[in-house]
Amino acid sequence: MMKISKFAAVSVLALTTVAGAAGAEEWRGWAIHPEDYPNTVAMQAFADKVAEVTEGRVTPTVYANGILGSQPDAIEQVRSGALAWANFNMGPMGEIVPATNVLSLPFIFRDVDQMHHAMDGAVGQQFSDALTEAGIVALSWYDSGSRSFYNTKKPIHSPADMEGMKFRVMNNDLYVQMVDQLGGNATPMAYGEVYQSLQTGVIDGAENNYPSYESSNHYEVAKYYSITNHLIIPECLCVAASVWEGVSDEDKVAIKAAAMESAQLQRQLWAEREGVSLEKVKASGVEVNNVDDPAAFQSAMGPVYDGFIAANPDLAQLIADIQATE
Ligand code: GTR
């Protein structure tokens, strides 16, 4: 089901769940990455497992490569129930579920381990609750490493090097503020448009983790990757709340277990892929550099935090909870 023509994908776009001949319910799933990407592989493993444990009552399918639309559009489609399930990054989710913006604050997590501890415990539950209220049920959390800046012009060593450069960011005003504070110019843009925009000079750079930088082929046109690790954003394996409500209690337990297993697999594949992607981009001539003073990037974020807390005083505790996580 993962290989599908654009025409076929579009023609089924409006159908969330389709009752099959034997009464099986098809769950159409949105995936932004290619078939061999850790997230997509883990989604397919989830799909296979769910079909097995529900004895075909639920048969999730995976539409890879963002063929069913951009991430902001897909989020809306899952909310409305037009799509049954997806793997979403929490970045573009902030515009819809304000609490998830906390996960888009630059340097909110010390490292990926801390992110896992937080998301797998009580903190993660708070985000799940906020998502459920917006019509999206997070069944488990995937890894997305940490994001750094890359560009077509030169290595970035300090924020001053970003002066005057135009960077694509995901759809969230916090990222615009982040790039502003670093001295660059931000352009929110869909993931699928970045390659061409880098190639034609519409933008000078973007930011992402190694696997996305590599699998999207952005490294072919933006040859400088500077390690800032400014964002560590978890991703969910999510189901439309309206679809989830229709599942029996027994199947819910089995599907939730399959989602936890899928997340374990994703994290393992992720760890492997990060190294593979880094080697691949380096071998192709990409210059990867450490920045001179990582703290200079972090301290520039003061106004972003101040503005955020002033506008969202109710989220200050959640920020504190994350910062207090081991
Ligand atoms: C990737 C993430 C995608 C998408 C993309 C982007 O790392 O897995 O869901 O958010 O980044 O930059 O748009």
TrEMBL record:
Taxon lineage: Bacteria, Pseudomonadati, Pseudomonadota, Alphaproteobacteria, Rhodobacterales
Residues in the signal sequence: 1-21
Record-level GO BP terms: transmembrane transport
Keyword Signal: yes
Native source organism of the sequence: Donghicola tyrosinivorans
GO molecular function: carbohydrate binding
CDD domains membership: PBP2_TRAP_SBP_like_3 (cd13671)
Taxonomic superkingdom: Bacteria
Any Pfam family matching the protein: DctP
Localization per record: Periplasm
The keyword Amino-acid biosynthesis belongs to this UniProt entry's keyword annotation: no
GO cellular component, one term: outer membrane-bounded periplasmic space
Keywords: Periplasm, Receptor, Signal
Protein name: Tripartite ATP-independent transporter DctP family solute receptor
